[in-house]
Design a protein that fits this description.
Elements (H helix, E strand, L loop, with lengths): L2 E4 L4 H11 L5 E4 L16 H15 L5 E11 L5 E2 L13 H11 L9 E11 L5 E12 L15 E3 L4 E2 L5 H7 L1 H19 L3
Parallel strand pairs: 1-2, 1-3
Antiparallel strand pairs: 3-4, 3-5, 5-6, 6-7, 7-8
Helix pairs in contact: 1-5, 4-5
Length: about 200
């Protein structure tokens, strides 16, 4: 069976990845499950650069013939000049809870009207193919920042990210609803198509 090593240790993210890529019929493992322990220095200036840095770092330690994928994602808030952006995971410190981070962002938008609370989730997914070739794709979902946290289904900034079409936060959606429209879902589906094309070109 073909294998994808995904450069993450985030259990919530792994769950989404498995759900979205399940019809590929590949074995999908985390870098830890693949026995890879390596330091990744995310010093890129864009989501794409950081995703590729992660993929390239893990690919050096991975077994030959596997796909190595990585993503870099975050929340971009227009009124806050794009913050937290590529620093979303490290915003206010990596060990700071998202409850604290979310309440801080809501507080910084105090008094700001809905039309100026626009935001988007961005996800770049990078892949190193078995022949060493590389590809990167980006998915985005537009929304706005709510006035309070709501929902238990998501993680990270999901409880404050409102989507107009649904009238709720991404943390209030079912996993199926979220995966259908999410930034990560979009990017992973695009990458899935690239993998299928690659497999077809190899005659496999």
């Amino acid at each position: 069976m073909k294998k994808v090593v995904f450069a993450t240790g985030n259990k919530n993210k792994v769950k989404e990845i498995h759900e979205i890529l399940k019809d590929l019929d590949f074995e999908i493992v985390t870098m830890k499950e693949a026995g890879i322990e390596t330091e990744i220095v995310e010093n890129g200036t864009t989501f794409e650069e950081n995703a590729m840095i992660k993929a390239e770092t893990v690919a050096k330690a991975a077994e030959p013939g596997v796909y190595v994928m990585a993503d870099d994602s975050g929340l971009v808030i227009d009124h806050l000049n794009g913050e937290p952006g590529i620093y979303s995971a490290r915003y206010m410190g990596e060990d700071t809870s998202y409850d604290v981070k979310n309440n801080n962002l809501i507080g910084r938008l105090d008094g700001v009207p809905k039309e100026e609370r626009t935001a988007r989730f961005v996800c770049a997914v990078a892949c190193i193919f078995p022949d060493g070739s590389k590809h990167c794709v980006r998915g985005t979902i537009e929304g706005y920042i709510g006035w309070e946290q709501a929902g238990e289904n998501g993680f990270g900034y999901d409880p404050i990210f409102m989507v107009d079409e649904y009238g709720c936060t991404t943390a209030q959606m079912t996993p199926e609803q979220k995966n259908a429209i999410s930034h990560r879902g979009q990017a992973l589906r695009m990458m899935r198509e690239e993998i299928i094309k690659y497999e077809d070109s190899c005659g496999q």
